[in-house]
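Q: Joint fold for the lines below.
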Amino acid sequence: MTTAKGKLPLEGIRVLDSTYVFALPYAGGLLADMGAEVIKVEGPGRPDVTRTGGYSGVFAENDLGEDWWNRPSTYNLIHRGKQSITLDMTDERGRDLFRELVSVSDVVMENFTPRVMRSWGLDYPNMRKLRPDVILVSNTGYGHGDGPYSGYPAQATTQEATHGHCWVTGYVGGGPAKAGASFVDFLSTWTALFAIGAALRYRARTGLGQWVDMGMYQSGVMFLSEYILDAIANGREGDRIGNRHPWRAPQGCYPAAGQDNWITLSVGDDAQWRALCRVMGQPELASDERFRSLLGRRENHDALDEIIAAWTATRDRYDTMHALQAEGIPSGPVLTGRDVHYDPHYRSRNFLERAKYSPERKLGERMFLSRPYKFSKSPLHIQGPSPAFGEHNGLALKELLGVPDEQYRQLVEDVIITTVPTTGEPSPVVPQPEALERGIIAAWDADYRERLDLDSL
Amino acid sequence: MFVLTTDAVFPSPMPHGPLDGVKVLDLSEDIAGSFCARLLADYGADVLKLEPPVGAALRRMPPFFRDDPHPEKSLFFLAMNLNKKSATINLKTAAGRELFRDLIPHVDVVVESYRPGYLADLGLGYADLETINPGLVMTSITPFGQTGPYSQYAGEEIVNYAMGLIMSISGLQDREPLKHGGFQAQYEGGLNGAAATAMALFMQGNTGKGQHIDVSITECVASTMMATQTMYPFIGATQPRRRASGSNFGHPMACEDGWIIVQTGGGATWETIANFFRDPRLHEERFTDTAERNRNGEELDRIVLESISERGKWELFTEAATSRMLFGLVQTPSELAECPQLESRDFYREVDHPVIGKIRVPAALFNLSLTPYQYTMPAPTLGQHNREIYLDGLGLTPRDLTVLRQTDAI
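A: Joint structure:
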């Protein structure tokens, strides 16, 4: 049994990461940040979907380079600090090597359908024979078991509807809407981290591993607990209130000076309301009969929205935030994927971290979301850039498993392992000016590399 | 070295859960901190909620059972505080602070969500508590984190979403950015708090060393924005909200009795999807690849909406699964409450609450083979365990207790 003794929480823990798309792969990246040794496994003919770009990201500099599969943005965010190996799991030799890796791993993560893992003899009962104290983490759309949807294919984009979030999201008077991208994936990412941390602690105390069986659907539904209880106890089905609050008022998202700039604010009580009137330079509003009480403000929300929007529309969004926050009123601008790189608060917390690539990767230096928690005594960092496809085949198979050179050469020859995917096409690249015209992107800074002070390629 | 605590302070209801033996003080009054501590309780920790004498703010949050705004009837409080005990404590009094310090040697974790610096000002910051218990893990969950220029700023759900980038890509291009429904940001803060706490507890078990964990709720929201953030340092671009027209495909679309949503990819080819919607026009070249569908979005939306206008959401959902399509339907809260899949996963548990009575509550976040989720007790009533904690645990006398109550220390 491996025991972590180092400065980072997961030093000495090895994770075999046989997962695809967003949810568990991202958990693997975050485990690497915590000091775990994470080995990502892909099939030579089954590269991760995030390698093909498209909905899941863009290629660095919009350039496919010589190895497009290593250049997409989300692939590089998710797999930071990992090792990458390839194994053809449709070949018995590939499965055997996978079994050998299981036997030297503390945690195994997978997101195949239940049927696939069973057919490979890699379901939990069989995996325990290879590694009795293994912690196996399985993530599927609806969870294992005999439920009616357990065999249904699923991904986060469409699950957002099924797990109820779209029902409660949408403009006032409009239909259900999605928010964000692949929302429930991330709930599963963090659920996996929690489960792994707890299971590792239990294993350290008892020597016993176990099987973590997650369904993304279940995580999504949990986050609507209060709506479900309201339905059960009060027969209420929830409603779409746009940017308003179930009890505070006024609350909304209002225009600010500049193109597509917005400011949010939320008023909870009479004192905050009076303060808002003062900051807006309209103290007389505070005594307006319609708005004096919370119930009145809720009733006359439309009229209030007009008054507030007229005030915010010509002001700088940051100025409005600072002025309102100085009075204790919750407020903040809508920040974009560009803004997060320049906002002083995010900068002071180093929320975006840099990863430097070796020259042969031709990716220079990039910035990535780090993680939303800081440990006072274990400074967490991105441990290194995302690996190239199969970059660590030699390290894992020869050095870790002791595969002899001759056998290794045969594996390469028979494409059980590879560094070039045997299938897959890059998504079409759309040059930024055309993307801007077609509405695929909202804005573009041609000089972003200088602005971010990124090392040259 | 592992910090072992006496069971006299928090007798374990039963040995279970991967976090069995972990003792937690939950000082949080909000959703995020309460959810964090509840997850720890769900998976085996003994959690004591310490509330101000008026009760945690969450007790005043809707929805209420039968719409009765009684302090013991907040369903939000119920959901976020299953499996915990409750004692009252007033940290604004010297006697209350002393009681709090007396509890610290017996616990592994403190969860709190006060304004950064509030506890330190009371002499109860991590630096103070660490001298009493070097193995202590303290998890602070706040809107913007413990450091940085906005750390003292007030947070609200909409502000977390706005500054967490998600609003910039939600809603339509010709309208204002749209907030996600409910309190997702708070739940995200709680879940990340629990994840970080579990990792810190694993390390504490190995090294004896505690940590102060700083969780930013806004950063939790931003962490879901991987395509949005990376688009900038990879090609210098910003992701937009979706077009006002011709972009319905891939978002909820109205059918006969509700809404469905479809996604390309997974195990289904475009041909399968075109067959599913039963309109031969979908096999035409202008729809067969992503870029073409994007260009001809208005026509695509029209055809698909027409083809499902007389088909029911459940029929469509089941048939799509047979075709191995990535497909969803918009479920309502009451449909979720009755869902057979959740039933098969043992997701709900019936709670018998002393004031509310029997009610089914969302319970198990995930399943574990050896130490599964266990429901042990309903959310506590205010100060329900004062005698157990202060008399049996800390050894105060009944007379001490009445004096502490009279002086508003508990």
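Q: Anything notable?
A: Chain B has two domains: 23-223+345-406, 253-329. Residues 253-329 of chain B form a domain with the formyl-coa transferase, domain 3 fold (CATH 3.30.1540.10).
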